[in-house]
Amino acid sequence: MRSAYKTPDIALTARRPDELDADLLVFPVFEAPSPGEDAALDEACGGALSRARASGEFKGKLFDTFIAPITAPAWKTRRAMFVGAGRPADWTPDRLRRVATTAGLQARQRHITRIAFVPGLPDGLSAGASAKAGASKIPTPVAAQVVAEGVCVANFDGGAYKTNDDPWGWLEQVEISLPDGLKAQAAAERGRLLGEYTNHARSFSNEPGNTLTPRVFAERAEALASGTGLSIDVLDEQRIAALNMGLLLGVARGSQEPPRLVVLRHDPPNAIPGVVLAFVGKGITFDTGGISIKPAQDMDRMKDDMSGGAAAICALGAIGRLNVPVRCMAVVPMTENMPGGRAMKPGDILKSAEGKTVEVLNTDAEGRLVLGDALWYARQLGATHLVDLATLTGAMVVALGKTTTGLFGTPAAWMEQVQRASDRAGDRSWPMPTFDDYKDLFKSEIADFSNTGGRPAGSITAALFLKEFTGELPWVHLDIAGTAWNEDTKPYQPKGATGVGVRTLVELALDAETWSKLDLRR
Ligand code: BES
Ligand code: MN
Ligand code: ZN
Asked: Whole-model pTM above 0.85?
């Protein structure tokens, strides 16, 4: 098996582009430049940039790329790649991050290993007003972080089990040139770790059901925790039974593989007092649907039904490495959902660890079951703030498509904090309602409630089911069913697992000083 990713060396430099020594210099350039813009760059490559603009070969359209030899003898690097940055007015840190990923993927395809990235041209090198105006909207540390993230997530290979092709090269060294760059060293290191742990989550999600069983997933979480200062507790089926986690055990019944419940903790000495941020992630290592079995078409995709769990675990890894001064934990229930001879059946009653009873009307609505017990357990362990992540409902893909994560929860101020973190992270999310009126949809005649509300508002009833297990804590639920897996190759995102959520959770933890002061009673 070949490795799924490589984290490149990343160095910040204040050197000017002409002084950078690499195999390739990368410059974001905007659409429709004002006359004279890019003059220095154009001159460096003997007019190739302006000729490409004039001919229409390259116009700076977002994520388009153009490579030209550098002909100016004084420049140390012999080649430049221009990456379209779109309209200056639309320039954002997230676009810069994606431009960096685009450049990284293009470089790797060409087996170029040493690149230098120039997010914005320094004074004296740029004659263009709009390029500077656009680039200057992004503060230096933010630029350093997002470029580091962007190039790291470019260094990911989804073909882990291929033995017969010629893989792309790895980026080995990346220099980021920013005029006052040396002050942003910590930001670049943060970006590098965020990229690394995003890739780690992607490699988890890419693993098929036969190689990443619940037991293996738990072992991998242990391996990830070692050396980061995190503590880990892996609960086996006996301890899960001793805690009366009837929902998790109900889902696990149909499988030959025993379930696991993984708890990772980050407990720094300088932590904000009284705050424990808990991430609860769905860890279904394969979802067949159980007795309410799924159709064969695309069922293979359900190997990624543990993406929420992977994000929670990998976020803890990054938080541990960064030593973020807030207590955090990840709680991840791990099991397969299989149609075995002992599997739970439609109509079965399960009793949660909290004591609430559930009528299972559809065994394919298993995510909310395992999360119900896990949310309760996070509360038992002292959580003060909850965020759960799950590839929970197909209805989420219908509602928001493949680009935006559904954000549910209470109170609104906590939802807002999580949404802001997701904006900073470049993980789009958007609020969805959880009005009590929807609770009628999953009433049960025989138990406290059922595990499905049918087709109407399918993502909302799933969220309201989870809410039953959140006590009085501020809680957010992120439904990543649409965003965990990318179906078609984009310039900045290859087909496959996205690692969505990792950066959101870390950004949230990094901002704890802000939200720990808020009154988040619900
Ligand atoms: N893991 C699926 C949700 C899913 C579907 C994720 C498609 C990604 C892509 C989940 O366990 C599920 O099967 N949900 C059911 C719920 C229904 C039975 C109430 C669904 O969405 O159909
Ligand atoms: Mn399911
Ligand atoms: Zn599922």
From this structure: yes
